[in-house]
Each structure stands twice: as C-alpha cells, then as structure tokens.
Write a structure and sequence with these properties.
13 helices; about 5% strand; two-stranded antiparallel ribbon; mainly alpha; 3-stranded mixed sheet; disordered N terminus
Length: about 350
C-alpha cells in the first residue's frame, strides 16, 4: 500500500531523512508517494465459478511444460548421438523455458485461488528481472539455433570447425549474458521511476507496460519510449537475423537437385522454424496489437497465450517434428521400462 510522502530513491539523503521524519518530504518540497507493494488484478474480475477450471487447465499445461522440457534435456544428455550443437542448443532452450515459466506461472496459479493479490516492491522488481532475462535468453537462443542451421546447410564442410564445442559453449554463454543484461537494463530503467497514486497493476504479473502506467513524473513518457525501443530493437533484431539465415538456407536447399534431398535437408529446420513462428506470432499478437476497446479480461487471456501456451507447445513441436529426437526419446523409454527387451 502507500506509505507517507517520500521522494524517489535517486535522492538518497532526502529519502532517508523522509523515512526518519515524514514531514521531511514537505520540507523538501516533494509531492511523491512511496509505493511499498503492488496489487495484481489478474483474474480477480473473472467469474468466480470459472477460476477452478482455469486453474486446472493452466496447472496441467504448466506441469506438461516442465515434464516435456525435462524429458528433452534428459534425452539429450543421455544419448551420445545427440551430443551435437543443434541438440545442445535445444537443451539450453529447454532450460530457459523452464526458468521462464517458473518465474511467472506459479505466482499466477496461486493468485487465481487466493484472496490476497499483493506483491512487494522488491518481489515485483525481481520478477520483472528474471522474466526479461529468461525471455530474452530464449529469443537469443532461437537466433543462435537459426545460425546453427545456416552453417550446417550452407557450409557443411566447415561445420565442425565453425560450430566446435568451445564455440557452442561461448554462444550459449553470450545468450545468457545478453539476456541478463537486457533484464537488468529494463528493470533498472523502470524501477528508477517514481510510482505514485494507484498501485494496482491490471495484469497477473509485474508487466512492464502496466507498471509504466503507474509511474509519474516528467520523464515517464521518455522512459516508456526507451523501454519499448530497447525491447523491440532486440527482439526484431533477433527475428531479422533468423529470417536472414533462412533466406540463405532456402537458397541453398533450392540448389539441391533431388526432391528427396531437399525434403531431407529442410526437415532438419522444421521444428526450429515452427517454434520461431509460434514464439513471435503470439508475442506480436500481444504486444503489437492495435489500440482499441480491449477489456482487461481479454488482455489477461491474451497474455496467458504467451506466458503459458507458447512454452507448452515448444516441447511438443520439438518432440513430434524432430524425427531423431523422437526416436531417441522412444529408445530411452524402452530402456527405462523394458530393460529385458532392450
């Protein structure tokens, strides 16, 4: 809730004096309110009889997401035939997906059946940092996986040299470092602002655009523009490089004389390309939708498609559309549950 009037944290001496003396704010000539916690509206406005059904649906999807990604990770690590750059990147992608869903979904599920929907200032900042970190890491990994397919198809003779184990480790490290930098940058920019007036977030998470609507001060509009530009530039940059990779891939595939060869080569890209389309398709539907008379409930349901539904589809796509991974999973289950037959 709101405490006594205090200046923002960018003036530490005045802020500390305000904490010691509530009248310090008026002496300093400030007119800001210090927000110590936020209220997440989430599914509060939904009919109460529908919440158990939503809870069960999202819980099952969440558990399946965790299970599917854990199976992929275990299969990649146990099958030596899958110890290639493509599947090591897939293992890193599954890790980022698990961490992303763990950051947001459990809190959403708890709030659906709870009467207390408050989140502290620090917890809100932490949730934003980790969600942006793992979200951007996911996008960077999809970009690296596109580059891996480009090298494998367009430069097959140099593949082992260009995509060595050390190079793959460096690329994965850079994606995690880049995601952490983006998460820290956005979080610091947003929570540097002063929040006054309402502390009600019309979302089930500490959504950046919903939070920016609660900020006050002259710099709010410029900060909002900066956050949007940073996020859009990073995501569109990744998408542009993925599209560029597939332009060269398609050009190389069309030069293959046999139809069977073209089909076999393109089949190695289908699962990755499908996940990219799903990932950016749902993201653009939510964040690039035109402004209109959208209700809060419809925006909440649309947000769950990216937070819950997209991670749910990813392991299904990679398991069903990738023949080598699908066969490896079957072999692992056969060895696990039918040791005599194997």
């Amino acid at each position: 809730m709101l405490t006594h009037l205090c200046p923002s944290w960018d003036k530490p001496r005045t802020f500390i004096s305000c904490l010691v003396s509530p009248d310090a704010a008026s002496v300093a000539g400030q007119n800001y309110s210090m927000v110590s916690e936020f209220i997440l509206v989430g599914f509060s406005n939904f009919p109460q009889h529908l919440l158990p059904a939503f809870f069960l649906l999202y819980l099952l999807m969440y558990l399946f997401t965790l299970l599917g990604n854990l199976i992929i990770m275990a299969t990649v690590w146990s099958e030596r035939s899958l110890h290639t750059p493509m599947y090591l990147f897939l293992c890193a992608l599954s890790t980022s997906e698990i961490l992303f869903t763990v950051t947001l979904t459990p809190r959403m599920l708890v709030d659906m059946l709870s009467t207390r929907h408050t989140i502290t200032f620090v917890a809100c900042a932490s949730q934003m940092f980790f969600s942006f970190t793992f979200g951007f890491t996911h996008s960077f990994l999809l970009m690296i996986m596109g580059y891996d397919r480009y090298v494998a198809i367009c430069h097959p003779l140099r593949y082992n040299m260009l995509m060595s184990t050390r190079t793959c480790a460096r690329l994965v490290s850079w994606t995690w470092a880049g995601g952490s930098v983006m998460g820290m940058m956005v979080t610091l920019i947003v929570f540097h602002l002063t929040f006054c007036g309402s502390n009600v977030i019309h979302h089930f998470a500490c959504h950046v655009l919903s939070l920016l609507k609660l900020a006050c001060g002259k710099e709010t509009s410029s900060v909002t523009l900066a956050v949007v530009l940073v996020c859009v530039t990073a995501l569109m940059g990744c998408l542009f490089l993925i599209i560029l990779s597939y332009v060269f891939i398609v050009a190389a595939i069309l030069r293959i004389p046999s139809a069977e060869g073209r089909h076999k080569t393109f089949s190695t890209c289908v699962s990755h390309l499908t996940v990219v389309i799903v990932h950016y398709g749902f993201a653009s539907t939510i964040y690039l939708k035109p402004k209109g008379p959208h209700s809060t409930d419809s925006n909440t349901l649309m947000a769950t498609t990216y937070i819950v539904f997209t991670p749910f589809l990813s392991p299904i796509i990679f398991s069903l559309r990738n023949k080598e991974l699908k066969n490896a999973i079957k072999k692992s289950f056969q060895r696990k549950f039918s040791p005599l037959n194997s």
